[in-house]
Design brief:
six-stranded mixed beta sheet, nuclease activity, HARBI1_dom, metal ion binding, nuclease
Length: about 425
């Protein structure tokens, strides 16, 4: 029995050694096989991608239409040739990479063309890949830095006023164009539709039933953004976003030199303050005087609606949900706001020609674009209690609008 037991133990030891040796040989064989497979990979880029210079949109279609069909070129990138060159000069140092031993780097020109086409249409990365012959994984990597470069290059066009003179100039436009003296801007918030962020729960889920981030913007009398707050979660309302914004902080600590006589116009979602006027609640039975005030405020405040509307009609990335993480969506919003301001201030005749904006007699052409819920208005989900001084200022405006500040057509607009 003892010999048998010893024999069995010996067999077990030998078997164990053999199994370990076989496992080791198997691993070594697998490693060698993987190395051989890696060595076989001699082509790092698909052949049709390598024909970019001969057949890609950048060096073919866009070059042709820039010379032969300027309208098509502008429609494709939302910029004419000269504007594209100006913007390219602004961003090149930020986005151009050096060539390597393995391959030539993508040019800043093609990166900017792809970014502008993406903003103009909202095309998917596979669609951009097939047009420009640039891998979609590459587009995904460089797009955020191009968006940052656009915003940084055009940041001078989107700065908030910091002197009383600058606020006064804005007020003068509102008074002359919209008959609302003392107005230094119109404030509103808009939802930007996005895919649900990972592990976000319901943080970005808004009252309309989809996921979004919020763009809060202050707009001057020329349809330009003077302040933007991007990236707030969709579940938040205008009042809470504004209460936590840098704009509110700076208005109240005096660092913006906001004039004591000035006001900003908001809708019912915002709190009534001495510097922030809002309409009388439509949930109440309003007097003719209160309806008149609401009409006059709405008439002047629709300039912010027009600014959003024009931007969305030009940059159709907003027409569909944006399938990127919130950080990248914020970059899109900042870049398009900067582009909007730049084009409004330097080429309004082409970017927003006559008829684009609302007038008293007819709606702007941007409203004829197919309606979309992908950038939607933010509503209030609570109440606020105005101070006595804020309420008195609203009463003063109400009395002014039915007295010396009345306009001939206002009565017909409230009944």
């Amino acid at each position: 029995m003892e010999q048998t037991d010893l024999l069995l133990q010996g067999v077990a030891v030998v078997a164990d050694i053999l199994i370990k040796e076989l496992n080791h040989i198997s691993k070594e064989t697998s490693n060698v096989k993987r190395k051989k497979e890696r060595k076989k990979r001699s082509i790092w880029t698909r052949e049709w991608i390598l024909r970019r210079e001969k057949l890609g949109a950048s060096d073919n279609f866009l070059r042709e239409v820039r010379m032969e069909d300027k309208a098509t070129y502008k429609n494709h990138l939302r910029l004419n040739g000269e504007q594209f060159d100006y913007l390219l000069q602004k961003v090149t140092t930020k986005i151009q990479r050096a060539d390597t031993v393995m391959r030539a780097a993508l040019t800043a020109k093609i990166k900017l063309q792809i970014a502008m086409r993406y903003l103009a249409t909202g095309d998917s990365f596979p669609s951009l890949e097939s047009s420009f012959r640039v891998p979609k994984s590459t587009i995904s990597k460089f797009l955020p830095e191009v968006l940052d470069a656009i915003y940084e290059g055009l940041e001078e066009y989107i700065k908030i006023p910091k002197t009383t003179e600058e606020w006064t100039n804005i007020s003068r436009v509102f008074d002359n164009r919209w008959n609302f003296p003392g107005c230094c801007g119109a404030l509103d918030g808009k939802h930007v539709n996005i895919q649900q962020p990972i592990d976000s729960g319901s943080d970005f889920f808004n009252y309309k039933g989809y996921f979004s981030t919020v763009l809060l913007a202050l707009v001057d009398g020329d349809y330009c953004f003077t302040y933007i707050d991007v990236g707030s979660q969709g579940r938040l309302n205008d009042a809470s976003i504004f209460s936590n914004s840098i704009l509110k902080e700076k208005l109240e600590d005096g660092t913006l030199n906001f004039p004591s006589w000035g006001v900003i116009l908001g809708d019912e979602a915002f709190p009534l303050k001495q510097y922030l006027m809002k309409p009388y609640s439509r949930r109440l039975t309003l007097t003719a005087e209160e309806k008149t005030f609401n009409y006059r405020l709405s008439r002047a405040r629709r300039i912010v609606e027009n600014a959003f509307g024009i931007m969305v009609s030009k940059f159709r990335i907003y027409r569909t949900p944006i399938y990127l993480c919130p950080d990248k969506v914020d970059k899109i919003v900042k870049a398009t706001c900067a582009l909007h301001n730049w084009l409004m201030k330097t080429a309004m005749h082409y970017y927003a020609p006559v008829g684009t904006m609302d007038t008293d007699d007819r709606p702007g052409l941007w409203r004829q674009e197919p309606s979309s819920n992908y950038i939607a208005h933010v509503v209030n989900q609570g109440s606020n209690h105005p101070s006595r001084l804020a309420e008195q200022r609203r009463i003063n405006y109400k009395n002014y609008f039915i007295g010396e500040g009345s306009v001939p057509w206002q009565s017909s607009r409230i009944f």
